[in-house]
Amino acid sequence: MNITEAMEARHAVRDFTDQPIDAAVLDKLRAAVAEANAQGGLDIRLVHDDTDAFGGCPTHYGRFKNVRWCFALIGHDADTGPADLDKRAGYFGERLALTAVSLGLDTGWAVLHEVAEHDDFWHLADGERMPAVIALGHGARPGRPHRSRPVEELGAVEGAGTLADAPAWFVSALEAAQLAPSALGKQPFRFTLLADGLTVRAEALEGVQSDIGLGIAKLHMELGAAAAGHTIVW
């Protein structure tokens, strides 16, 4: 499957088997990490630890079992504040998650506490943070579809009361955003097509890890619009 098809197939998994990840798949994941770091100005690590890839760090929400692999989403805060790093971690982290799903793996987002270092796998330098991690591997059982907000709540057209006259590409993008994972399934983001009919305003709403969620949703919006033959202008 391709990365767009992976949006439909991806469902959060928190319990993993001992089945190893194929060496050829790992090579593709490492290449995807290198690309994400170069494009996003990040320092993402692909972590392997047969005991616990989270390094014993407690999760903010949800219990995970037998996590041997994860993407540690690490980066420096920008001068504009922590929201920028959270959005980049969300955007490029989800791209990695969808890449993993397209390669036959399962994934699950998590936020960790007490993440200063984990043996030789990561060490946070001055000014670095780890907004989130993504567990990956072979799920012990299939994930289930998450709750999604209606497209009418996720998006709007400037100056219009409904989406009735919205272009097809914008509706397609919002439908892709419905598939975006978010903390507690709240999807705290909103997208508005501006009066020029081209530019989309993206907003994080009040909610847990809302800026991470917005970064994830922006990727989904771009993929949904691209499937309809359109490139979003932010």
Automatic annotation (TrEMBL):
SUPFAM superfamilies: FMN-dependent nitroreductase-like (SSF55469). It comes from the Bacteria. Residues 2-225 form the Putative nitroreductase TM1586 domain. InterPro entries: Nitroreductase-like (IPR000415), TM1586_NiRdase (IPR029478). One of its GO terms (molecular function) is oxidoreductase activity. Pfam families: TM1586_NiRdase. This is Nitroreductase.
